[in-house]
Amino acid sequence: VKILAIETSCDETAAAVVVDGVKILSNIISSQVDVHRKFGGVVPEVASRKHLELVNPVIREALIAAGLDFTGLDAVAVTYGPGLVGALLVGVAAAKAMAFALDIPLIGVNHLEGHIYANFLVRPDLPFPLVCLVVSGGHTDLVLIRHHGDYVLLGSTRDDAAGEAFDKVARVLGLGYPGGPLIDRLARDGDEEAVDLPRSYLEEGSLDFSFSGLKSAVINHLHRCRQQGEEADRAHMAASFQKAVVDVLTAKTLEAARRYGCSTIILAGGVAANSRLRSLLDARARQEGRRLFYPPPVLCTDNAAMIACAAYYRYLRGEESPLTLNAVPHLSITGR
Ligand code: ATP
Ligand code: MG
Ligand code: FE
């Protein structure tokens, strides 16, 4: 089954062709980061316009790289939410046009489900039940996956998403955008114990997250240093901040795995590329006899191959979308 998928939920225009949810024939990602960098973040209206310019060339490139023309496809998949409404609409319109013109099924995919399925793309035999930590630019969700397509939301952030916290802290450290990979790199030269930062665990037993207090603590520390006429060591701050985030993510993910009897844990979303999160959660999971899996970095951040993979399992279940499919900007992982 050959599925072409389109992803335009945020600031990457992406298209991919994947066979049977595992064989990536092409995975084209045109990132707009250079366009948005001068604003220090994604500007929604600019993103929509860029998607409009790029969507057809990116689809064409994905087909050419896969050695296909339009006739070789079994279905067309598209991210319909969550994301920026104007950005999502570009992909949704393109996918509907293709599905109608080619008379093949249209499959709407939840972007967060796509992030989760980056794991199945490389490892289709993952054993259920799974606990997945979805950590991205806009989300921090702990999800229990009982079967393909069966999700229970166990907890999520009450304020900033993990990736958002990385990006904001990188900005106050003057590192640039997007901040996650820059903090990850700089933290290697810093001491994780150098700056004492708070870790928010919320009420006893809660699987929710909160990162805004940590972000404020970083800003306050930098101000205090400046008032005393000294510059804070950026590498120490990056390492200490990263450790504070990763400690909480690790503790709550393991708690969820224990509570729901999951011997396998997976990571999804852009922050799943973080080297410290991977190493700490892997070590702690092993101590308890659990296994951790995560996709390669290029499949952690936004791409269309993960959307094609999620769509494949929907295709197997016969879950097609009507040609009236619309963008749903606040779609949650449980589909509401
Ligand atoms: P969402 O998926 O919630 O809609 P998004 O699509 O914008 O949001 P992703 O593309 O999944 O987010 O991930 C981007 C985020 O991942 C950014 O916040 C970026 O800083 C972060 N990120 C990427 N690599 C790393 C890394 N190595 N360490 C920490 N954060 C990272
Ligand atoms: Mg992005
Ligand atoms: Fe994403």
UniProtKB/TrEMBL annotation:
Enzyme Commission number, as recorded: 2.3.1.234
Residues noted as binding Fe cation in the record, renumbered to the chain: H111, H115, D302
Pfam family, one: TsaD
Annotated Gcp-like domain residues: 23-308
Keyword vocabulary terms for this entry: Acyltransferase, Cytoplasm, Iron, Metal-binding, Transferase, tRNA processing
Cofactor(s) essential for the protein: Fe(2+)
Catalytic reactions on record: L-threonylcarbamoyladenylate + adenosine(37) in tRNA = N(6)-L-threonylcarbamoyladenosine(37) in tRNA + AMP + H(+)
Predominant location category: cytoplasm
Binding site for substrate: V134, V135, S136, G137, G138, D167, G180, D184, N274
Superkingdom, natural source: Bacteria
Name under which the protein is recorded: tRNA N6-adenosine threonylcarbamoyltransferase
Species in which this protein is naturally found: Desulfofundulus thermobenzoicus
